[in-house]
Amino acid sequence: MQSAADPLERLLRRVALGDDGGGLDELTALDAKAHALVRLGALISLGAATTSYRCAVELAYAGGATDEDILGVLSSVAPAAGIARTVAAAPGLALDWATT
Fold first, then answer.
1. Which of 2, 10, 65, 93 could form a disulfide with 60 if both were Cys (CB 3.0 to 4.6 A apart)?
2. Residues with Cβ < 8 Å from 11, sequence gap 6 or more?
3. How large is the greatest C-alpha to C-alpha distance in the chain, in angstroms?
4. Phi and psi at residue 7, in whole multiples of 5°?
5. Hey, what's the torsion of the CAs at 50, 51, 53, 57, to 10 degrees?
6. Tell me: the pLDDT tens digits for 7-24?
7. Could you tell me if 97 and 67 are in contact, meaning their C-beta atoms sit under 8 angstroms apart?
8. Which pTM value belongs to this model?
9. How many Å apart are CA 10 and CA 88, to the nearest integer?
10. Rounded (to 5) percent helix, strand, coil in the chain
11. pLDDT band for position 45 (50/70/90)?
12. Cα–Cα distance measured from residue 43 to residue 54, given in angstroms and rounded to the nearest whole number
């Protein structure tokens, strides 16, 4: 007899193993934009590589995010991740700010 936690346990194992199987994104209520912004915040908090930041930013833009949304992520994670880590991550985001 399976318990109600079995589907959740299987999901958590898949996440822990990085086994997306093409279906983990379907299990979230977040849209593509929110999903990418949350991922970006997590990457900044972890001090990930610049390539990872840029990939998350590209996914966020593809989901409809704006530069202001990306800056919102920076200001939101700064208190938890630390100002130094957040400031260090900012250039790696490669935002395309127009200078006029």
1. 65
2. 24, 27
3. 66
4. -60, -40
5. 140
6. 777 777 776 776 655 555
7. yes
8. 0.70
9. 37
10. 70, 0, 30
11. very high
12. 10
